[in-house]
Amino acid sequence: MQKNEMVTVTIEDIGVNGEGIGKVDGYTLFIKDAIIGDVVEAKIMKAKKNYGYARLMKILTPSEDRMETPVCPMARKCGGCQIQEMKYDRQLKFKEEKVRGNLIRIGEVPEELLAQTMEPITGMEPSEGQEQPFHYRNKAQFPIGTDKDGNVIAGFYAGRTHSIIPNTDCALGVEVNEEILTCILKFMEEYQIPAYDEERHKGLVRHVLIRYGFTTKEIMVCLVINGNKLPHSEILTERLAAIDGMTSITLSINKEKTNVIMGNMIKPLWGQTYITDYIGDVKYQISPLSFYQVNPVQTEKLYGLALEYAGLTGNETVWDLYCGIGTISLFLAKNAKQVYGVEIVPQAIEDAKNNAKINGIQNAEFYVGKAEEVLPGYYKEYAREHGGETAHADVIVVDPPRKGCEESLLRTMVDMQPEKIVYVSCDSATLARDVKFLRGNGYEIQRVRAVDQFPHTVHVETVVLLSQQKPDDTIEIDLDLDELDATSAELKATYQEIKDYVLKEFGLKVSNLYISQIKRKCGIEVGENYNLPKSENARVPQCPKEKEEAIKAALKYFAMI
């Protein structure tokens, strides 16, 4: 295949980023905006040896899963709604398969285990009169710029660029956003307030942040400016304040040449410096810099699942890592003995403490710092102060950023030996990586559920419950002894038991891969596809001699050889 070549492609699969995948004479092409079942005409934009990227030029035969008319005509240009043209039930299937695939491929979770533990994805019900869920975001950040004719515009960046696509009526945001943006743009034109030019680092208004309380109907507007003040701000605030529900108007001072949107200094212009909203019956104060889930309807379902998975009885000590403004912590505190929250952002911890106060919650404490530093530090300090006794948690809830958890944090979580770990994730790839570590260190998946927090995008939240596996844990099963050789060597010991024996007797850590290699050497049957390389050319590490002898000793100990 050559660059600029035109091809006809049948889309057979969909990638993790929502791109359609098809083949031409065995050559794989990734095509943005195409969905499974489409037959499309595409132009090759980048050609690698075994695969390439192509631009969708024309849909020759639309898929049965394609929407007849997209709700937002700017969706393809904007790039924010990668799969908006796909029917919603197919979106949910894609996201569920994405989570399952990552857990199997990256996390090495057996398909049989997921068949038992993975629950159907929690989708979002559409608003009355709609076929699909829209207008669900309670937060939007609109870049402000100037078009080629010199007009001030607001919208969103086109995919992978900083070119603004004008759009004041995003289908995912609340409907009042358009009224607010129209007011601000008209004000800027009238009083000749310049928009920010990031290449020249000139101009004043960089972004407009809008937050909306779905329960309280309170509205926040924060203008991010490249300066210390906004000329004629009293006129703008008077106009914005006339909008029903307006509660907070502020400035965010950001004079840095940076892609970071918000500055650290917030100046009040009118009203409060925060709005309030509820998730369930818990009330939260939200400032311009607060992290707060953007879809409150689905957030209540998400946190409800986390609470359900935690299974609290009122006697537990719980750690909530990456707690933000205490959203999950306060949900948990109503059902726990004590909750400790950890978050790196000082302002978020102040918000968390205040949110605990306004809800009358006294059994939640919050600490500022990196979770991967605070929890290990606490664990070591506790041992020093208690004569070597180890700190313990009954339940640990973790809701990390997309990069997931550092191994040092996962190690400390395991050392604290909680009965349960509830992992809330916004990236199923890093979730799967961390689940692999936890499963290799004494924890096993009990329940998994994806939650569609972001309809029409490729993003999905996932909640996983892992429980500590103890040596005396048993499970009741019915066996037909006529069909089973109960003396089969592979039934004598689990991989984890072999690992524990080798670590105890020889001080060595061995992987499932090494164990399976030595079992094969000894003529013990293992799963057909167990730990096979991801590709034909991949190099598989071989078990070192020292560890081979230790594994063989374990197999002899368990009477497997």
List keywords for this structure.
single chain, 561 residues, alpha/beta
Structure description:
This protein has an eight-stranded mixed β-sheet, sandwiched between helices. It contains 14 helices and 22 strands. The protein is α/β, with parallel strands linked by helices. It starts with 5 loop residues before the first strand and ends with a helix. The model is unreliable at 474-491 and 528-538 (pLDDT under 50).
Rg, rounded, reads 27 Å
Oligomer: single chain
- The strand line-up of the biggest sheet is 6-21-22-20-19-16-17-18
Q: Span between N and C termini?
A: 54 Å
Mean pLDDT: 90
Structural class: alpha/beta
Instruction: State the helical fraction.
Output: 25-40%
Number of helices: 14
| Strand residue content | 25-35%
Largest sheet: 8 strands, mixed
**What global shape is seen?**
globular
- The tally of beta strands, per DSSP, is 22
Low-confidence stretches: 474-491, 528-538
